[in-house]
Write a structure and sequence with these properties.
This protein has seven helices and ten strands. It is α/β, with parallel strands linked by helices. It has one domain: Zn peptidases (Aminopeptidase), CATH 3.40.630.10.
Length: 234
């Protein structure tokens, strides 16, 4: 049996905070791009610049900033999907920095992580990935939302995907998460899915919760390893 990988949660938290300024700058840039006139490729250019700093092995970025990027080459395929446009900027920023955290801490396991920012989940390009599970980087106020399963309707807390998400949260933050059921706005997606992400609330100064962003990035970084461990349990 493959030995269990122990995640150094303290080092993960420290490294995430070391990237705080870069993460906030990326979020600021992504939010500002839609308001810039005459730069239709601005989102793509900004994302490409960020990807050059990260260890993603296979990337594709469309003119509008649509992204499909791969990290790792293991047998368990995980799709981390972010919303498009300004609404999805916090999720995209956290997802890209999760890739950096995985690489810098060497947290590679038997997984292939795809990060997508490409509009509807029903796109054929995403279905062609044949992902084992789907993690939606949506604003849930750091709550774990169980979405539809392919056959049995809503997921339940006993499902390995949900168990992996709960274990990830408890290991990182040493608290039990809030877990609920919520339908996907896009309807059933054909694979087990959960949602988790930073609060969408922006204060009067136009700032999103820095703590939520950093915790979301840590969650996305640790989840693939926790998922593989849950799946491989005898």
């Amino acid at each position: 049996m493959t030995p269990t990988r122990v995640i150094d949660t303290q080092r993960l938290s420290t490294l995430a905070h070391e990237h705080e300024r870069e993460l906030l700058q990326l979020l600021h840039d992504l939010n500002a791009i839609p308001h810039e006139n005459g730069h239709p490729g601005g989102a793509a250019n900004r994302i490409l610049r960020e990807l050059q700093k990260a260890p993603f092995e296979s990337t594709g970025v469309g003119p509008a900033g649509n992204l499909l990027a791969r990290l790792g080459s293991g047998s368990h395929t995980i799709l981390l999907h972010t919303q498009g446009g300004a609404a999805g900027a916090p999720g995209l920023a956290a997802a890209l920095y999760a890739g950096k955290l995985i690489h810098e801490l060497g947290m590679y396991d038997d997984f292939t992580l795809w990060v997508a920012n490409s509009g509807p989940m029903h796109d054929s390009a995403l279905r062609d990935l044949h992902a084992d599970c789907l993690l939606l980087a949506e604003p849930t106020k750091l709550c774990i939302e169980m979405r539809e399963a392919p056959v049995e309707g809503f997921l339940h807390e006993s499902h390995p995907l949900v168990q992996a998400a709960i274990a990830t949260y408890e290991n990182l933050f040493e608290l039990p998460p809030i877990v609920s059921q919520a339908p996907s706005p896009e309807g059933p997606m054909g694979i087990p899915a959960i949602a988790f992400g930073a609060c969408a609330h922006v204060d009067d100064a136009g700032h999103i919760s820095i703590r939520h962003l950093l915790q979301a990035a840590q969650f996305y970084a640790a989840f693939p390893t926790m998922y593989v461990q849950r799946i491989q349990r005898p």
